[in-house]
Structure prediction request, 317 residues.
Amino acid sequence: MPASEKILVIGSSGQIGTELTAQLQKVYGSENVIASDIKKPQHFSGEFEELDVLDEKRLGEIVAKHKVSQVYLLAALLSATAEKNPQFAWKLNMNSLFNVLDLAKEKKIKKIYWPSSIAVFGHSTPKENVPQFTVMDPTTVYGISKLAGERWCEYYFLKYGVDVRSLRYPGLISYSSPPGGGTTDYAVDIFYKAIETGSFQCFLKEDTVLPMMYMPDALRATIELMETEAKNIKVHSSYNIAAMSFSPKQIADEIKKNIPGFSISYQPDFRQNIADSWPRSIDDSCANQDWNWKHKITLNDMVRDMFKHLTVAVDKK
Ligand code: AKB
Prediction:
């Protein structure tokens, strides 16, 4: 990244935002990264601006003040929370994207990162090895907003030459910041409950297989995509990326290798319907061909690393 670039992360306190902000600071220098969210977190080191992304005027002021050239837009309501407030989810997920796309259209910023999700797929999408281009019929408001967002990203690229890049994240698993409001969140909660109480009640059925990824791979994918030369980006909606797929039972079995007495029970709720509409595995060969993407972390590595970090964190409490 050229030295003159300044990055604004919107939604820097969320699950992805917390870790991506730290990684961007590490890679590009703290002085080149401005974090922003609705409220400043208690312990944050670096530049921070309080920002409601729906406030277009304030967003423009922050961009001008810091001479921002790249925006990572991470603020969104995820699948489960969005179902509880569909109108607001649509407003937040779509208007935030328009506010940022329009800054690029007006040449106030040069590059955008905006995450999409496996939630863009639906019941008619193939369940296994979903190709990059396929049937997409999402049934959740979150999935609909991500699919519409993908179409708008491509539209802004084709019509106005906006450099906007995107990944369809699978469920993301991390130890340093909790997820909020997703259907794949169980795969993070299960570790905390296993360590703290030795048991876990899962809101999905035991054999519900979903695509997942460990956060370090997701961060690397994001930065690699943003570093790719523009001429090599062939997908202007959002790239499929993949790492691993597992069910609650499979991850519970891995956890039992670390905590032999661990027990899991299943009490499916409304999130089961959401999970049932999503695919089980993803074909990410386009990302591999265009910018050399390849995941590194397997289920086994991830479980080992989660326990290493979480056990230390729980011991310190
Ligand atoms: C969710 O479960 O809503 C998210 C996602 C798959 O985008 N983690």
In short: The mean pLDDT is 96.
